[in-house]
Design brief:
Shape: globular
Number of strands: 0
Structural class: mainly alpha
Order of helices and strands: HHHHH
Strand content: under 5%
Radius of gyration: 13 Å
Number of helices: 5
Largest sheet: none
Distance between the termini: 37 Å
């Protein structure tokens, strides 16, 4: 059976990986954009590991890279910490308003 996927603001594709697309919200987790780590349908649902917003091919490649699943979990934890620290309840605000603070913590 095909697993259901949660869609983010960006659906990361294998072409994106091949082209090394420089997303403006690229994280230290293999350049995965933060917008692939939250749901476009819910205002406060983040995703990590195998649940990221990516095509099946991109997801398979990323999950085959050592440490990527764990690193996406760290990225989500940082994003949540930044949101809480700034009183944000809407995940898009981390990228929209607090990106510099996020990047400082995502080293």
């Amino acid at each position: 059976t095909t697993p259901r996927r949660i869609m983010g603001d960006i659906i990361l594709s294998e072409n994106d990986l091949d082209a090394k697309v420089p997303f403006p919200d690229a994280t230290s987790a293999a350049g995965i954009p933060l917008r692939s780590l939250y749901s476009c349908w819910s205002g406060n649902l983040f995703m990590a590991g195998t649940a990221i917003s990516a095509t099946a091919q991109a997801q398979k490649r990323l999950m085959g890279m050592p440490g990527v699943q764990e690193k996406t979990g760290e990225i989500v934890a940082i994003a949540v910490a930044v949101a809480i620290r700034n009183g944000e309840t809407y995940h898009r605000m981390v990228f929209a308003k607090h990106w510099e603070e996020f990047k400082e913590m995502d080293r």
